[in-house]
Amino acid sequence: MTDSKYFTTTKKGEIFELKSELNNDKKEKKKEAVKKVIASMTVGKDVSALFPDVVNCMQTDNLELKKLVYLYLMNYAKSQPDMAIMAVNTFVKDCEDPNPLIRALAVRTMGCIRVDKITEYLCEPLRKCLKDEDPYVRKTAAVCVAKLYDISSGLVEDQGFLEQLKELLSDSNPMVVANAVAALSEINESSPTGQPLVELSTSTINKLLTALNECTEWGQVFILDSLSNYTPRDEREAQSICERITPRLAHANAAVVLSAVKVLIKMMEILAGDVEFCNTLSKKLAPPLVTLLSSEPEVQYVALRNINLIVQKKPDILKHEMKVFFVKYNDPIYVKLEKLDIMIRLASQANIAQVLSELKEYATEVDVDFVRKAVRAIGRCAIKVEPSAERCVSTLLDLIQTKVNYVVQEAIVVIKDIFRKYPNKYESIISTLCENLDTLDEPEARASMVWIIGEYAERIDNADELLDSFLEGFADENAQVQLQLLTAVVKLFLKRPQHTQGLVQHVLSLATQDSDNPDLRDRGFIYWRLLSTDPAAAKEVVLADKPLISEETDLLEPTLLDELICHISSLASVYHKPPTAFVEGRSAGIRKTLPARQGSADEIGQEATVIPNQESIVGDLLSMDLGATAPAAPLGGPAATSNIDLLGGGLDVLLGGGSSDISTAGGAAPSTTGLLGDIFGISSSPSMYTPPKTCWLPAEKGKGMEIHGTFSRKNGQMSMDMTFTNKAMQAMSGFAVQFNKNSFGVSPSGPITMTPLQPGQSLEYSLPLNTTGPVQRMDPLTTLQVAIKNNVDVFYFACQMPIQILFTEDGTLDKRVFLTTWRDIPSANEVQYTINDLNGNTDTVSNKMVMNNIFTIAKRNVEGQDMLYQSLKLTNNIWVLLELKLTPGVTTATLSLKSRSVEVAPYVFQAFEAVLKNC
Amino acid sequence: MSSSAIYILDIKGKVLISRNYRGDMDLGVIEKFMPLLLEKEEEGLLTPILQTANCTFAYIKTNNLFIVSTTKKNANIALVFVFLHKIVHVMTEYFKELEEESIRDNFVVIYELLDELIDFGYPQTTDSKILQEYITQEGHKLEIQPRIPVAVTNAVSWRSEGIKYRKNEVFLDVIESVNLLANSNGNVLRSEIVGAIKMRVYLSGMPELRLGLNDKVLFESTGRGKSKSVELEDTKFHQCVRLSRFEIDRTISFIPPDGEFELMSYRLNTHVKPLIWIESVIERHAHSRVEYMIKAKSQFKRRSTANNVEIIIPVPQDADSPKFKTTIGSVKYAPEQNAITWSIKSFPGGKEYLMRAHFGLPSVECEDTEGKPPIQVKFEIPYFTTSGIQVRYLKIIEKSGYQALPWVRYITQNGDYQLRTN
């Protein structure tokens, strides 16, 4: 026998004792007993065995006792579903109690008992409570609908609770409205279709805005959060919402303030056109954001993470508030690190002196993580604010003098980046760096130092000795350091081949023979072969110019940033990850994006009725007035759905670009003579995708002349490639060609010079084209109307140009320009497209695209997804920016397009598909 | 949207009391909380939000308790944290101190509160005065069942009807805290004033109050631009203030809660001289001694006096045998805080005082590098506001037409007042 029996008997005894007390007749005794049961439950003892006895106490008019029994039920009903049924009757009865407190308590508790059998009985009482005369009961019932939806969404829809909930949005009581809106938002977010089940209408929005002034602080947050999911019809509505929400910025509750900020920033996106209004609003946003930094540290942390997003999206709002982000000695470390991050984001030439002196101060603190981050921050400032680079470097040198080990190591890591950004500028400090070689013990710092030695081997007299000393412990080094060492020694050898042959052989054999690391071996073998076969090529490869680094590397992806802005004050905004990254299943909700800028829908409708007679405007390009020329018939594809102002910038660029293009395109195009030779001459080089020829003019319509054709672009020269077939009985001659005005001003560079076509004969002819012709917007955009004349007659036909022939060879953008352009183009001008059946990875895609003048600007990997940023330019100077998101191993990919003239989107997508599928 | 469950844990991570609101997670997930917290602390990556594979913990710490909220969704985390602090506030109002013992003693009331404060993760009624009307600690008298106060769902959710006082009085305290950050060269990096207007309201019925301040925006809009006024950079109001009214014409109008509350707070950047300025000369002779020469200067008007001034000067943790010499006040060494405190009961404006301190240092140095905590100053200056803010009037209108007396007090005190040292 062990002692454990005492424990079991005591336990049994206790339960037994409680049982008899629960069944005592005296009310007071009963209550005491239930309290004991709850106390045991609180400390984690299993008292589920008492279920029937506790439920027996449920019918009481003592409210405190009732609450305790309900609490017990919530905890154990799931483990005793059959017995829980016993409680249903009392619940139903309590839902009709004269005391609203009890009615509400009953409906609230029933919703928390997640047992199917009980749920069935919940519907009737819930229906009544939703119409209860007491607002307290109604507001509790509203939340209960959300509870029920969580257990059984079908039941809620079938029983018409959604409609009832919707009616509560017009309730006279603000708290009821707030809870109803909270319940609806939750239901919308977990909608299985991904589409909101209940859309908010303008009149509902007005009711919400009214309730906003009267409900509790929490209710205000619910309302503001649901407003942030609403996209107003037009700018006027957006503006009025802003005006009614702005007073919330003065609320003492930080959650109310942040939710208001979220709505306002979203609305500003719609109101981007109204610069003055946005500026005033931006000014109003700064003070409340700053005040958030006086709240509790946890709230400060959330605020800072959000401010980090806001300064990336709208850098102007807080640009003068640098000082408030200075770190205080007693800030918790998580607040310090976030403040530091924002300081760098706000650093500019105007405030860099102050920032640097602060960072230097922080670098002498004791908290190692904080100090490291401060040193890194100095490096980032040097890269971000060019004129300050020199000061930053000297600050870093000062810090290296302190000889504090981790400071020195961190400084060396960032100095490497500074060298990358400003080559051949600060190499004079290398000797100082070399003095600290022995103290470096962290892989990243060692690797950085080795890189520096290799990169500047020609300036460091004893580079060979230094590298040699590293080689002694090669096997023990971290892989990162080994790779750097290998490359550095090869660089050294290429720069100073005398006396370093032994060294390079040594490192190559270490890398290829003694290492298990495949990366290292592969790199070793490549160098070895390069060096042994073609040292000149090796030089070109190893000593090639490196791409510059810029501060953009730590900015968020623009699309991700926009999504996160929609999630201000939520967990996503703290993690800087979309909700899908950390929320499971359907509850992740609908992906949010900033709203499109509002075009005026009625204007488009009107314009559509006044399509001008095209003949009437022929020939007069300059007097063309936008209103008259815009056919504004809906374009196919995504552009049509996004309500873009067709009369705004887009067409402007199309037309203006086209007409002003005469000089530029003319300059770019080589002289027309000898073009054919050029084309044939370079036929071996990889070229743009040319669609197969299609029949443009069938013989029956061409009086025996049949034309098949396509368009191509080679070496910057567009041409129309045609096959003429004579199916008539007589020879054809006297060919001539003419184009009607078209969207891109495409016209023949010269007349057709074709030999007469004998009956039954086929001839190939390539007609060189330029884009200097008159412009008129066509629909579809790429339509080209052609007239061909021969000795028989004039024939008219229309064909579609593949848009890629209009992509120019200079369509590549600088990374920074790309990023700013992407950000500047309003999200209204963004169109997305899903590519199916995609094979290959970013590299293959990138290679295919570059042949078609779609240039890759950058590649990134974000959470397992490959992102490809590309740009292209049309002959009429329209820039198109693309972001391709693909997941390795998945055949669907998302292509996002941004352009000032977003009408071209469907054609670009077509081209993209065509290239992918056919190259 | 927000919390799946709320837990109160003791310092070791043991659950004292908990309430599951959404039933979408097993209550046992809390077992992971403490190990995760310790792990993150070890890595130096501690944040108030901890993430596991399928849930997020958000927590605050108070009086050796952790108040933890769990969620599986993309919750409104700002709301969660504000709410967690609110829970602490409400429970402190109920039990004086929120600590392990008071939780055990009151677990029934706490369950009731947790039931009323939040429903399905959505915060509901959190006003402790209103809650106290229907959730009481003594247990309910047998026959009379409590009713819900109208205020719970009223537009005025913070005040009950039918309050009666024999003498109707209002006390207004204007309290300005000065935040200062100066670097070791004596340059002021940041200086701001965070003001608060606190009220104690003892008024009958449902009074309408209107508060008039010398607000610059208001003065300029009403053509009194020349009168002395202050520019409030950002104001925050208690929920009783009609915000849209303030936005329209800067009128602060409200029906106050009963008793004590903070009506509003405001913030402004100032370029005034620091009220109390400290110059310090610290001479450190390694392995033998360290000497301090501290000069304190009051830079406000001679009419005013700062009371209970405390200047807290950090010293090395291995310092010993303190010696002090000062012209005024007293100096104490607090080894547990590694600091000396120079206290001056009364410090009139325009004065300058000096203090010297001398410590021995051991010949063997301690290995840990020490930080450089700043010098901190505490003070209170009554009848004085740095910003010059003034209460011009407080109008009280109640339909019964009683006369009420407003009392106003002004005080300026230190906020986060830090001066970095060499």
UniProtKB/TrEMBL annotation, chain A:
A GO term, aspect molecular function: clathrin binding
Highest taxon in the source lineage: Eukaryota
A GO cellular component entry from the record: endomembrane system
The keyword Secreted belongs to this UniProt entry's keyword annotation: no
Residue ranges of domain Beta-adaptin appendage C-terminal subdomain in the record: 807-917
UniProt-annotated location(s): Endomembrane system
SMART domains linked to this entry: Alpha_adaptinC2, B2-adapt-app_C
Membrane topology label: Peripheral membrane protein
Single GO biological process annotation from the record: vesicle-mediated transport
Keywords: Membrane, Protein transport, Transport
Entry keyword annotation includes Lipoprotein: no
Residue ranges constituting the Clathrin adaptor alpha/beta/gamma-adaptin appendage Ig-like subdomain domain according to the UniProt record: 689-798
Pfam families the record matches: Adaptin_N (PF01602), Alpha_adaptinC2 (PF02883), B2-adapt-app_C (PF09066)
InterPro entries reported in the protein's UniProt record: AP_beta, AP_complex_bsu_1_2_4, ARM-like, ARM-type_fold, B-adaptin_app_sub_C, Clathrin/coatomer_adapt-like_N, Clathrin_a/b/g-adaptin_app_Ig, Clathrin_app_Ig-like_sf
Entry's family note: Belongs to the adaptor complexes large subunit family.
Name the UniProt record assigns to this protein: AP complex subunit beta
Organism: Brassicogethes aeneus
Source taxonomy: Eukaryota, Metazoa, Ecdysozoa, Arthropoda, Hexapoda
TrEMBL record, chain B:
PROSITE patterns: CLAT_ADAPTOR_M_1, CLAT_ADAPTOR_M_2, MHD
Subcellular location: Cytoplasmic vesicle, Clathrin-coated vesicle membrane; Golgi apparatus
Biological process (GO), any one: intracellular protein transport
UniProt keyword annotation of Protein transport present: yes
Membrane topology: Peripheral membrane protein
This protein's UniProt keywords: Cytoplasmic vesicle, Golgi apparatus, Membrane, Phosphoprotein, Protein transport, Transport
Claim: Phosphoprotein is one of the keywords in the record: yes
Function: Subunit of clathrin-associated adaptor protein complex 1 that plays a role in protein sorting in the trans-Golgi network (TGN) and endosomes. The AP complexes mediate the recruitment of clathrin to membranes and the recognition of sorting signals within the cytosolic tails of transmembrane cargo molecules.
Family: Belongs to the adaptor complexes medium subunit family.
Protein name: MHD domain-containing protein
